[in-house]
Design goal:
Elements (H helix, E strand, L loop, with lengths): L5 E6 L15 H4 L2 E5 L14 E7 L4 E4 L3 E3 L23 E5 L24 E6 L7 E8 L14 E4 L8 E4 L2 E5 L5 E6 L11 E14 L2 E8 L4 E8 L5 E11 L2 E13 L2 E7 L9 E10 L7 E4 L2 E5 L18 E7 L2 E7 L5
Antiparallel strand pairs: 1-7, 2-6, 3-4, 3-8, 5-6, 7-8, 9-10, 10-11, 11-12, 13-14, 13-19, 15-16, 16-17, 17-18, 20-21, 20-22, 22-23
């Protein structure tokens, strides 16, 4: 099981002896994204977010550089997806700050500071990033507050880009390591994995498939239903783009013999090297009478020759033919993992199943 990176915060006046080996971090760890909230820098609460800067320090030449930081304000009642006027541009405790581990640097002693006089009038917040594979490996980033400092004109670096829908909800996410496209219902139908030079390989995804069977109860009525992804109707679609993270929520409903059923909102968080699906926000109550619920990703003919692996199966050929496999689904806290790997690229999925 891959452990999570630990992020801790300290103020500038705390001296921590540390041996820095930032160059020894693995590529996979450097590709991780970290998020902290305004609560972690609460001493700056109510300050304008335009006065906040994220820096890393390089011990080798005693130099500072500003790094890309995405700030996602969260407004009451509307969360991420309000109008511009819903956001106060002031640091609130639940606002979220996103950065890449690869941009972090070395430990900076309290005597080392950026070249900006106004920033010395405020606390400098230090974040220590601990590598769980080797806790002696640490990186650091620093939050400064200044009303006179200007942002580096070469920033932000866009680690991820969003292409808005051209028809229906057919948007596309272009990340450093992958491209995911969606059909007019907003359902994934394109997967392309980037090589080390950033060039996307061929698409090998046919579609994401969903199946649900059951007996829906509405007052005295009982309605047998069989639904697929083709029966889904988009009722709400929201997104928020940034240089490191794209937040995307899509809500669905369906018609059952003339009755409208709310399926729920599916929440996705796209990062440069991973996609996090938070699932639906709806709990299936007893009136839905669910007998079967299933989702899967159907690969197309480009995937022939790839191999499937998980905890109980190894080197299962992906060729469209059926195979006898161990289909055990482990319950939380055990994490289920699945990997499809071959010439088009490698996709790894993690799934945690919590029974009702």
């Amino acid at each position: 099981m891959k452990k999570k990176i630990i992020l801790s915060i300290l103020f500038w006046f705390v001296v921590i002896p540390a041996t820095i080996f930032s160059q020894e971090w693995s590529e996979s760890r450097n590709h991780e994204t970290l998020v902290f909230t305004g609560n972690s820098i609460s001493r700056l609460e109510t300050d304008s977010i335009k006065y906040l800067f994220l820096y890393s320090f390089r011990e080798a030449d005693n130099s500072w550089r500003e790094i890309t930081m995405q700030i996602d304000e969260i407004a009451p009642n509307v969360g991420y997806f309000g109008k511009a006027t819903d956001y106060n541009k002031i640091l609130d405790l639940d606002d979220e700050f996103v950065f890449m581990v690869q941009d972090a640097g070395d430990y900076a002693p309290p005597t080392s500071w950026i070249d900006d006089a106004d920033s010395r009038n405020y606390y400098r917040h230090q974040f220590e990033i601990i590598n769980p594979d080797n806790p002696s490996l640490k990186k650091y980033v620093y939050v400064y507050r200044s009303s006179t400092l200007s942002h580096d004109p070469s920033l932000p670096i866009y680690y991820i880009k969003y292409v808005a829908p051209t028809a229906g909800y057919s948007d596309t996410v272009k990340a450093m390591s992958y491209l995911e496209g969606h059909n007019t219902k907003g359902i994934p139908d394109v997967w392309r994995v980037a090589d080390t030079s950033g060039i996307y390989g061929p698409d090998f995804l046919d579609r994401q498939k969903a199946r649900a069977n059951g007996k829906y109860k509405w007052y005295l009525l009982s309605i047998d239903y069989k639904m697929t992804e083709n029966d889904l109707i988009v009722s709400k679609f929201e997104y928020k783009r940034g240089p490191i993270r794209i937040i995307r929520d899509i809500s669905y409903k369906a018609q059952l013999s003339g009755l409208e059923a709310n399926i729920g909102t599916f929440q996705y968080r796209f990062y440069p090297y991973q996609v996090v699906s938070l699932g639906a926000d709806k709990k299936l109550e007893s009136e839905y009478g669910v007998k079967l619920i299933r989702q899967s990703f159907d690969l197309d003919s480009t995937a022939i020759g790839m191999k499937f692996h998980n905890a109980d199966n190894t080197n299962i050929p992906i060729d469209g033919a059926g195979d006898a496999i161990n289909d055990t689904l482990y319950q939380s806290p055990v994490m289920n993992w699945y990997m499809s790997s071959g010439s088009p690229g490698t996709v790894v999925m993690l799934n945690e199943f919590t029974p009702p």
